[in-house]
């Protein structure tokens, strides 16, 4: 609704609009679902699902998948996916995806049960690989360095 349309609506109603009327119903649902202070990032991703330009439920899911799961920036360097990740760590990518899908569900009036069943197509970030420590080439004889006395 543009400013002129908003003024007409206010004039027609003859009263002030309430703050919850300023945002789309989809955005309000995201605000209600992710209302805790610690959930603000997920509220943002939910609203991105609401405001996406996709025209179908399936396209919206793909939008969420692309937004929340990134491929490595450098070929064959999986760690470089962190450089271009929207939400950050792998667990955050999953939270981002589910929040965005919630927004898509609100946008396309999809039942909660169906929304909850959706899984991402993105690859989760691999666990960091711990490299083995290099072994010394020659064993070191420590017996000469240790005192032969007891306490």
TrEMBL record:
Residues 116-151 are annotated as: Disordered. It comes from the Eukaryota. This is Uncharacterized protein LOC106775176 isoform X3.
């Amino acid at each position: 609704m543009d400013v002129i349309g908003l003024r007409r609506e206010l004039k027609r109603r003859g009263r002030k609009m309430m703050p919850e009327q300023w945002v789309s119903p989809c955005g309000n649902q995201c605000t209600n679902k992710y209302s805790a202070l610690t959930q603000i990032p997920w509220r943002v991703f939910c609203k991105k699902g609401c405001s996406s330009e996709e025209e179908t439920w399936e396209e919206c899911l793909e939008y969420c998948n692309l937004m929340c799961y990134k491929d490595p920036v450098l070929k064959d360097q999986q760690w470089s996916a962190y450089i271009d990740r929207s939400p950050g760590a792998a667990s955050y990518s999953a939270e981002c995806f589910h929040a965005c899908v919630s927004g898509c569900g609100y946008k396309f009036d999809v039942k909660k049960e169906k929304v909850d069943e959706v899984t991402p197509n993105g690859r989760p970030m691999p666990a960091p690989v711990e490299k083995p420590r290099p072994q010394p080439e020659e064993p070191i004889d420590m017996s000469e360095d240790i005192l032969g006395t007891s306490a």
